[in-house]
Design a protein that fits this description.
Blueprint lengths: L1 H101 L3 H15 L3 E6 L4 E3 L10 H4 L4 H9 L11 E5 L2 E12 L2 E10 H8 L5 H5 L9 E6 L4 E4 L1 E2 L2 E2 L20 E6 L2 E9 L4 E8 H4 L3 H32 L6 E6 L4 E5 H80 L10 E2 L1 E4 L2 E4 L9 E2 L4 H9 L2 E7 L5 E4 L20 H4 L5 E3 L3 E2 L5 E2 L1 E12 L5 E4 L1 H10 L12 H9 L2 E11 L1 H8 L4 H4 L9 E6 L6 E3 L25 E7 L2 E10 L2 E8 L7 H24 E3 H10 L11 E5 L5 E5 L1 H4 L12 H25 L1 H4 L5 H7 L8 H30 L2 H30 L4 H35 L7 E4 L2 E8 L3 E6 L4 E5 L7 E2 L5 E9 L5 H18 L3 E13 L4 E9 L4 H18 L17 H28 L1
Antiparallel strand pairs: 1-2, 1-5, 3-4, 4-5, 6-7, 6-12, 8-9, 10-11, 11-12, 13-14, 14-32, 15-18, 16-17, 19-20, 19-26, 21-24, 22-23, 24-25, 24-26, 27-28, 27-31, 29-30, 30-31, 33-34, 35-36, 35-39, 36-37, 37-38, 40-42, 41-42
Helix pairs in contact: 1-8, 1-9, 1-16, 1-17, 8-9, 8-16, 8-19, 9-16, 22-23, 25-26
């Protein structure tokens, strides 16, 4: 006994040591796979973040470069415009203004210069001689002095202005002067008067330009609107001073602070740098790019946000690995213990043998656990594949979200820039229009050009000429050379001069007949406000004509002055002439000292002032070049969507596409483009759909009256999903192979210890779980038929290894599902608000065959299963207290809940997958009516088959009796069930015909033998013989598991006493054992002179009593006659 205890102690020590070694291996495996998978996921996440940051930087740099181009274009327009004004003023000087200024006093000179300054919007205007003296200016103190002495210009700049600021190739090089009065740009153009050179100088305030270009060159303005993936941001550093030019991260603002003091390394200031940096104790993944010589722009995102979604992939992959490892380990231990307990001789192969060690491979255990290993690896692959898919969708949604935020920022910025550019553009050209009006007012020669064009109307099919205020036909000058020259010099499309009634009197275009329309819908109608004196200027917004051409016009008040010449013809005179006439004699007074008769007649006629309109038309190509960065094609162009693009729908009822890179889509409705209706309902939406046959991932959001979407080809997604899933699965497989080696490799000493420490315990013959052989030949465990509907749980020790594995899997599955349900309950804190998990739970996705519907359906199914199990337990406890009636009601309620839950889950999942359950039911009803007569039996068979499977009345491998036919269930199909009989034949039953099934599936069945003995036989003697002889039958037949035993008298028959002898055997052996038992008992009776009665047959007559009496009398008479003949014969002899 002491030796046995020592052996058991050594075996237990060895066993627990091996368990600890396996547990250590499990921990090491978890650490290895989690570390390895974390490295893989982190590498993928960093690579993805690097790509996103580089794309965000590229987009920001593109905006900055576009803005810089816009600023340069505005600067060019500014300088060219001011130079053009100087050139225009020079032409005015050459046309007689210079002579007038020479002959005028200073007050008149100042008035002229002040008027020009007010119209042109400049700060300085003066005429300077070649030696640097100011000849004319609005300030009397300046005249005759050198600008150098006035502190207005440096000597060097005076020399540049004398030479002129427009080069031979037409480029303008302004002179910048920063003096005590401010900062100014000066422009000049050279002129000649009476062989004397002079320079017309014009000065503009630098702030006029800077105020317009500062926002375009504002780096913080751009960076503040440039999103970075995973909640990142951008900041800029001045590398010369190592200070933040811009840093704003939420509420944290560090602009102007030292970058190095916050924790940034100098390496982060290098062009193309990428890595993890610490800023004020927080870890960021940073990507840097140089902008200019001394500026670095960096895209930064918190590392915890970069790896935020990957931790779920890592968590579930590791959990899957741990579960599979634990299950494989425990299952191997259970299998081994089961083999030892049943004294099952396993198949072993010697791998290594020496004097001290014999290493063997247990093939039997390996064959049991390797299917679990394969299933486990497939499970890990499936988990990784599923989580990688969700991760990729989440990341793509984040990239789409960033792209939309970028578009929104670019849209806001473009709107601001468009406003700035438009305002600047309009102001500059408004000044040009005012100056041109002034030039023509001072020199109206263009209106006096010879022309044959006369305005007229048709009244009742008769041509009626229009009359001007002088009583002459109203003429119009078309294609004026002078106006064309002004257009060319000032970058204008057209110039129109109208009379006080809105008729064209001169134009640079051939449209001499044009007039302002009184139709309020017409583009020209609002300009009557200028003619009528309601406005002095009108800057019209760009409008699209019926021809699809965009045009913009600016109108300014224009005064023209008319009189008659000596021949009575209408003549246009200058404002100077009009004002001179007022001074010399107020409107119509004769000049006392007329120099000529013609002049006297002219004065008699007088000069009339008219208020009208001068209108300029803008060049479309000029506005296009300035506003290109504000167009939709630029705003919605992006490179952050991995081969995808943006799309725009309006919020009308039809939801029409307003922008798409594919021009054929523009104008089509969302329905025509197969965009899901859920996508354009205002909430954030993303999912998969096909457009023009190409599968896209689409992300939509409502923004400022439009639905903006990001479309990414599905082929551009999931680039790393398969690779990472395979890595996780293969890594798990390698570790599982190492684990299997610890349980399948044994030594001779280990086998000896286990053989000595354990003895065969066997299993109960009435166990609820036992092994059966399926028709396929494989051995599996099953539950006895009676235990399937028994409320009692099966003890752990009685369960087969497969059943124990199933129990462990169920327990782990329930724990995981409960964890998931708890996480969902607290989803707001457990998951990202904009993450894919919250999106699945929100139900905003499109109903159809997609991963969102699959996830929701899986969640609904497992939740329903758990709820049914949770409800089943208290219901059974409650009904058990109510007796047999309560037990019946409990079983009924459980059955109703089970079927109701299954049907509810099926229909709800069909709804999730986009199937209209109501229509499905209606269709099924109509279909059943149509095919009811022809396929009624088929439908009954299918429904019966479904119920057989769900109810579990019998399973494949069970031994059943159906309609007195006994056999093993081979297959349960949707229409038929196949039974394999003991004779080797297969009987096929339609499922609807199966009823009254006798399920005889159990571990040990009773084989019953009924045999009769004669009534005169000594029953005690028979008992003694059977008790002595029956044990010998078991020794001769190993199919008998227990018995045979004499069970007593079963019946008192007509011919003898019926005895019952029984024994236990496997159900599949019961027929053969029964035949053996009958033969053996009969031989025992023959050897011991125990008589078995012959069968007796009792025949009863059913004839009427009267006939029986007659026949009786007849027989009696025949017997008497026979007796009499015998007597007579005796006497004769």
């Amino acid at each position: 006994m002491a030796v046995r205890r020592d052996v058991r102690r050594r075996a237990n020590t060895y066993f627990f040591g091996k368990v600890l070694a396996n547990a250590l291996l499990l921990v090491i495996g978890v650490i290895l796979i989690s570390t390895f998978l974390r490295r893989v996921q982190e590498s993928t996440a960093i690579s993805r973040q690097l790509h996103n940051s580089e794309q965000s930087l590229a987009e920001a740099f593109s905006i900055l470069e576009k803005n810089e181009e816009g600023a340069k274009e505005l600067t060019r327009v500014f300088h060219d415009g001011n130079q053009d004004m100087a050139d225009d003023l020079l032409e005015l000087m050459n046309s007689g203004l210079f002579s007038s200024l020479v002959n005028s006093d200073h007050d008149a000179q100042a008035e002229v210069f002040t008027d020009i300054i007010d119209r042109s919007g400049v700060e300085y205007l003066f005429v300077m001689s070649t030696d640097g003296r100011i000849l004319f200016s609005p300030v009397q103190e300046y005249n005759g002095k050198n600008p150098v002495d006035l502190g207005l210009l440096t000597e060097e700049n005076v020399g540049k202005l004398v030479a002129g600021t427009r080069g031979e190739n037409g480029t303008v090089t302004p002179v910048r002067e920063d003096n005590s009065f401010g900062n100014f740009y000066f422009y000049s153009t050279r002129g000649y008067y009476r062989r004397q050179d002079f320079a017309l100088v014009l000065g503009a305030d630098v702030s006029t330009l800077d105020s317009q270009t500062s926002s375009l060159r504002d780096i913080p303005f751009v960076l503040d609107r440039s999103p970075v993936g995973n909640g990142g941001f951008m900041f800029a550093v001045d590398t010369a001073k190592n200070v933040f030019l811009y840093y704003k991260n939420g509420e944290e603002i560090m602009t102007g602070r030292s970058a190095l003091e916050t924790g940034l390394s100098e390496a982060a200031f290098e062009d193309g740098y990428s890595g993890i940096e610490t800023i004020r104790g927080t870890s960021y993944y940073c990507v840097s790019k140089k902008f200019g010589p001394d500026t670095v722009i960096c895209a930064a995102a918190k590392t915890q946000d970069v790896f935020r979604d990957d931790k779920y992939v890592l968590f579930w992959s590791t959990i899957g690995f741990v579960i599979v490892m634990i299950l494989c380990l425990l299952y191997a231990v259970i299998i081994r213990n089961d083999f030892v307990r049943r004294a099952f001789k396993t198949e072993k192969k010697v791998l290594y043998k020496s004097k001290d060690l014999t290493l063997m491979f247990d093939r039997s255990i390996f064959e049991k656990i390797y299917p679990l290993m394969i299933v486990g690896v497939m499970l890990i692959f499936g988990i990784s594949y599923y989580t990688q898919t969700l991760l990729e969708i989440s990341q793509t949604a984040e990239e789409s979200r960033v792209a939309l935020e970028e578009v929104a920022g670019r849209y806001d910025e473009s709107s601001e820039n468009r406003k700035v550019i438009r305002e600047y553009y309009n102001n500059r050209f408004l000044s040009k229009a005012k100056l041109i009006a002034y030039l023509i007012e001072e020199d109206p020669s263009v209106l006096n050009e010879p022309t044959s064009f006369v305005h007229y109307d048709y009244v009742e099919d008769e041509k009626v000429y229009q009359i001007d205020d002088e009583g002459n036909r109203l003429k119009s000058v078309g294609s004026s050379e002078k106006l064309l020259d002004l257009c060319e010099r000032n970058d204008l499309e057209s110039i129109y001069i109208f009379d006080e009634h809105g008729n064209t009197i001169a134009t640079s275009t051939p449209n001499w007949f044009f007039y302002l329309s009184h139709d309020e819908e017409a583009q020209s109608s609002p300009f009557y406000d200028v003619i009528d004196g309601k406005k002095d200027t009108l800057v019209q917004e760009p409008m699209t004509s019926d021809m699809g051409e965009e045009s913009q016009y600016i109108g300014v008040v224009f005064h023209y002055y008319t009189t008659k010449d000596s021949r009575g013809r209408t003549v246009y005179v200058s404002r100077y002439d009009y004002e001179s006439s007022l001074e010399k004699g107020k409107k119509g007074n004769k000049k006392a000292a007329a120099e000529s008769e013609a002049e006297a007649e002219e004065e008699e006629q007088g000069i009339t002032e008219h208020r009208s309109l001068l209108q300029i038309g803008m060049k479309g190509e000029l506005t296009d070049s300035l506003l290109e960065p504000t167009e939709l094609s630029y705003i919605f162009s992006t490179s952050t969507l991995k081969g995808g693009h943006m799309i725009l729908f309006d919020a009308s009822e039809e939801q029409v596409c307003r922008y798409a890179p594919n021009e054929t889509w523009i104008g089509m409705t969302a329905e025509e483009l197969e965009v899901p209706a859920e996508a354009l309902k205002g909430e954030e939406y993303y999912g998969f759909t096909r457009v023009s046959g190409i599968p896209y991932f689409q992300f939509y959001r409502y923004m400022d009256g439009y639905y903006v979407g990001a479309m990414i080809p599905e082929s551009e997604m999931f680039q790393s999903r398969m690779k990472n899933s395979l890595i996780a699965a293969l890594t798990s497989l390698i570790l599982l192979i190492f684990l299997s080696a610890t349980v399948t490799l044994t030594s001779a000493e280990e086998e000896k210890l286990f053989a000595s420490a354990d003895k065969k315990s066997g299993s109960r013959l009435d166990a609820a779980i036992f092994n059966i052989i399926l028709p396929s030949g494989s051995t599996v465990s099953t539950v006895s038929a009676s235990a399937r509907w028994d409320n009692r749980s099966i003890p752990w020790r009685e369960k087969a290894p497969e059943q124990k594995l199933l129990t462990m899997v169920s327990a782990i599955f329930i724990v995981l599902i409960l964890y998931i349900l708890v996480s969902i309950r607290f989803a707001n804190s457990a998951f990202r608000e904009d993450g894919v998990v919250m999106y699945i739970l929100s139900g905003r996705w499109e109903r159809g065959l997609n991963i969102f519907a699959f996830s929701a359906a899986m969640l609904v199914a497992v939740t329903t299963m758990i709820l049914l199990e949770v409800i089943r337990f208290p219901l059974r406890v409650l009904t058990s207290l109510l007796g047999a009636r309560g037990e019946t009601i409990g079983h009924l309620m459980i059955s109703v809940m089970k079927y109701g839950g299954v049907l509810g889950v099926i229909f709800y999942c069909l709804h999730l997958f986009g199937v209209d359950s109501t229509s499905l039911l209606a269709s099924a009803g109509i279909l059943s009516l149509i095919i009811g007569l022809g396929a009624q039996s088929l439908i009954k068979d299918i429904i019966a088959g479904i119920f057989i499977v769900f109810e579990g009345e019998f399973r494949v491998g069970d031994i059943v009796t159906i309609h007195d036919y006994r056999g093993k269930v081979m297959d349960i199909g949707l229409r038929t069930t196949k039974i394999l009989g003991s004779d080797g034949n297969v009987k096929i039953y339609n499922n609807s015909e199966i009823s009254g099934v006798l399920n005889m599936t159990k571990d040990a069945s009773y084989s019953l033998c009924y045999i009769d003995i004669e009534y005169g036989q000594d029953i005690e003697y028979v008992e003694e013989v059977l008790n002595r002889e029956l044990p010998e039958l078991k020794k001769k037949n190993n199919l008998i598991l227990d018995g045979p035993t004499f069970a007593g008298v079963n019946a008192l028959g007509a011919s003898g006493v019926t005895l019952l002898i029984l024994c236990k055997c496997n159900e599949e052996d019961i027929l053969g054992v029964n035949r053996y038992l009958k033969r053996g008992v009969l031989q025992i009776f023959y050897r011991n002179n125990i008589r078995v009665p012959f069968p007796n047959l009792t025949i009863s007559s059913l004839e009427p009593p009267e006939k029986r009496e007659e026949e009786k009398k007849k027989r009696e008479e025949e017997e008497e006659e026979e007796a009499r003949r015998k007597d007579d014969g005796i006497f004769e002899s």
